[in-house]
Amino acid sequence: MTGTLVLVRHGQSDWNLKNLFTGWRDPDLTELGVTEANAGGKALADYGIQFDIAFTSVLTRAQKTCNIILENVGQTGLETIKDEALNERDYGDLSGLNKDDARAKWGEEQVHIWRRSYDIPPPGGESLRDTGARVWPYYMTEILPRVLRGEKVLVAAHGNSLRSLVMVLDKLTKEQILSVNLATGVPMVYKLNADSTVASKEVLGDMSAAH
């Protein structure tokens, strides 16, 4: 039997709350974000999983979410690998801007294209396809082999880096992935077949739309 892959989007960050494009900038979790991470951790504790290793990005909001989850499952100090391959999509020139201000500057339609198209990046930034181009090889070489060896692996990362993974795992088209939002702090538990396809997927907890 192969192992288990758990994906969790970080809890609400300070810039989520302020409606700012965040990308590779590094704000902390809000109080709500900490609550969301604790809820995800409690759901995993109730599920009864114990991890062999954790992966996260180099950004504070994902690392803190990862640590809170590990506290909840009683695994503080578990080996955790941090890599910028799992970072949020880089929003380039939009980073740090209020989303309403960006719409006023570039227009509603253009900002919507940058946010929601699959392969059109914002100025100086990454599209979802660009994000996948760094996430997918890292997943294939560093994460997937551990799952296929039977390990239970936690990945605490970001909305877009995880959407690029969900796209592959759930076999979604580039059109289908555009309507997928991942709720903050809500674990997705994948069990994989030996050929790396998905045997089962469970979402633990609230399935309300993400911010």
What does this structure look like?
The protein is α/β, with parallel strands linked by helices and 211 residues long. The protein is 39% helix and 14% strand. The protein has a 6-stranded mixed sheet. Helix 2 crosses helix 3.
- Architecture in CATH? 3-Layer(aba) Sandwich
Specify the overall morphology: globular
Number of helices: 7
Helical content, roughly?
25-40%
Mean pLDDT over all positions? 95
> How far apart lie the N and C ends?
36 Å
Number of strands: 6
Give the strand line-up of the largest sheet.
3-2-4-1-5-6
Unreliable residue runs: 207-211
CATH class: Alpha Beta
The SSE string, one letter per element, is: EHHEHEHHHEHEE
User: Nearest-angstrom radius of gyration?
Assistant: 16 Å
Number of domains: 1
Strand content: 5-15%
Q: Which structural class do you get from the secondary structure elements?
A: alpha/beta
Might you state the CATH topology name? Rossmann fold
CATH superfamily placement: Phosphoglycerate mutase-like
Compact summary:
This protein is of the alpha/beta class and 211 residues long.
Keywords:
single chain, 211 residues, alpha/beta, Rossmann fold, six-stranded mixed β-sheet, 6 strands, 39% helix, globular, disordered C terminus
Layout of helices and strands:
Layout: E1 4-9, H1 14-17, H2 31-47, E2 53-56, H3 60-72, E3 80-82, H4 99-106, H5 108-116, H6 128-148, E4 152-157, H7 159-169, E5 188-192, E6 198-203
Parallel strand pairs: 1-4, 2-3, 2-4
Antiparallel strand pairs: 1-5, 5-6
Helix pairs in contact: 2-3, 4-5, 6-7
